[in-house]
Design a protein that fits this description.
heterodimer, B: alpha+beta, Barwin-like endoglucanases, 7-stranded mixed sheet, 5-stranded antiparallel sheet, 14 strands, 52% helix, elongated
């Protein structure tokens, strides 16, 4: 009987709850450690990226290249439709939505003149 | 301490009686924290990624406008720029886009000058066969995206058309290293002469000028002077470019957060519902505790434990899951919404950039209201006569 009470006391809900909170805290600490490690890794690569930016001449990310006016969001080029401010709000769906599905029987390529 | 632990024990036993309801509540709480923090973490990371490069940019970019549209700028403007006091370096740049109909992708073509000191260091970011990398005429260095798009390898030939439909061939002498993918994935580096021919930029003109200022505190003053001596030009300073990233990515995350507002409202309604009154069962429990000799302070401690336990544990769990989702798994689905998609999409992972103020805002929007909603009605019930509470009058 006494041992049963002791066992129950050892597993009192407060201990389990505080243990779970401690585990979550450890989880957050691990995330923090991962962040520090990733930042260090990124800092090691930073000089190479700076050279790339200096050579390319723009810090814009090469993630939008289906539309010319989105490739460089901070700088306009000859074909940019909205030239009034750097980084005018984009409206092209590429910039902020998932890739559209293909439409059956419909060509997605643009062509000019007689085919 | 022992008293608090005993109260915590009692609180947890009380919660276990409603375990499914509490579990659902905690899941909902964590999900809400996960959704909002994922958007905030991802936006912070992408902004940080874009802003990192701003340091290496020229302080001022000068473009020429004609009839409200950007046109190539005469290289002779460079001579006028030299006269402006405070200008340290002037870089005439030739760059533009090359559309490939078959893949619907735009390559970015850049003119490179081996002689310019500011553009040194190319060999460090390029994989190449020779020990000394010097870009010559008829040679090209490609981003990884173009190599994949054109199924090319080092030493092979890339064919590009000039505006007059003449085809020019370039030997691939190097490829940008993967570490620079975010900036070079769709880039073709040619000599300035070759870039001029492919882009159709006439002799005596360049696309724009990059200007470096010796005293960084004088950037705005120098920019104003440049506008005066070169009317018809657009002068963009580096600070504006950094603010552009804030604007572009903040509006995207704002748009995404608006679509998630429904969840926040549902959560707020749940909190409101709780704050407006306890259930009959909870009231009866408080009444019985008071009748058996519990103080109001004991009941408040118990209810604080309950509120803190549920909200803090859920908040921490939501935060951990969102971190793993964003920075370990690469934020599938959400990445498309915030960062977008593309024809040539570089593979990349985000460097964690967690802003404590964002976490604090999220904490105050979720944990604090929940705590208030748990403690205040309990305090109201605890101050009423136990007999009245138990009878449910």
């Amino acid at each position: 009987m006494t041992s049963a009470i002791r066992r129950r006391r050892r597993h009192r809900p407060a201990s389990i709850f505080l243990g779970a909170l401690a585990l979550l805290t450890v989880g957050l600490c691990l995330c923090y450690a991962h962040g520090i490690n990733a930042s260090r890794h990124s800092a090691e690569q930073a000089p190479l990226r700076e050279i790339a930016v200096r050579i390319v001449g723009s810090s814009d990310l090469a993630v939008y290249n289906a539309a010319r006016y989105l490739r460089h969001v901070t700088l306009t080029d000859v074909s940019t439709p909205f030239q009034d401010c750097p980084g005018c709000l984009d409206y092209f769906p590429e910039a902020m939505s998932a890739n559209p599905p293909g439409f059956a029987g419909m060509s997605t390529q643009m062509s000019f003149g007689t085919p | 301490m022992k008293r608090y632990l005993n109260l915590l024990d009692f609180t947890l036993y009380s919660l276990l009686r409603r375990k499914w309801k509490i579990l659902f509540l905690m899941l909902l709480f964590s999900y809400l924290v996960f959704l909002f923090s994922s958007v905030l973490l991802l936006t912070g990371a992408i902004k940080n990624e874009a802003k990192k490069g701003v340091r290496a940019l020229p302080d001022i970019t000068i473009q020429r406008l004609s009839a409200g549209r950007q046109v190539p700028i005469p290289i002779a403007y460079g001579e006028k720029l030299k006269e402006v006091f405070g200008v340290e370096r002037i870089e005439p740049r030739i760059w533009g886009y090359y559309f490939v109909a078959s893949t619907q992708a735009n390559y970015t073509i850049l003119g490179y000058d081996n002689e310019r000191d500011t553009w040194k260091g190319l060999g460090k970011i390029v994989v190449h066969d020779t020990s000394d990398l010097k870009l010559g005429e008829g040679e090209a260095i490609l981003g990884e995206g173009i190599l994949k798009d054109r199924y090319l390898r080092l030493g092979q030939t890339l064919a590009l058309d000039t505006p007059s439909q003449a085809t020019m061939s370039f030997q691939v002498v190097g490829a940008f290293k993967g570490v620079t993918n975010l900036h070079t994935y769709d880039v073709i580096l040619l000599t300035q002469k070759d870039a001029r021919e492919i882009l159709g930029v006439e002799e005596g003109f360049v696309t724009d000028f990059g200007v470096t200022i010796s005293n960084k505190n004088e950037i705005t003053t120098v920019a104003k002077k440049i506008v005066q001596i070169l009317p018809g030009t657009r002068v963009v300073i580096k600070g504006q470019l950094a603010r552009t990233y804030d604007m572009v990515y903040s509006w995207r995350s704002g748009f995404t957060l608006i679509t998630l507002l429904g969840c926040l409202f549902a959560f707020a309604m749940m909190v409101w519902e709780r704050a407006s009154g306890l259930s009959a069962e909870e009231k009866r429990e408080i009444g019985i505790l008071k009748a058996t000799g519990w103080d109001t302070s004991d009941i408040l401690i118990m209810k604080s434990w309950e509120g803190l336990g549920i909200s803090v544990a859920s908040f921490m769990a939501g935060l951990i899951v969102s971190y793993v989702f964003t920075f370990v798994l690469g934020a599938p689905l959400l990445k498309s919404l915030i960062v977008g998609w593309s024809v040539l999409y570089p593979p990349f992972t985000f460097t964690p950039s967690v802003s404590p103020d964002q976490i604090l805002v999220l904490f105050s929007l979720t944990v604090v209201p929940y705590l208030i909603a748990t403690v205040i009605p309990s305090w109201r019930a605890a101050t009423i006569d136990p007999d009245t509470v138990i009878r449910g009058v």
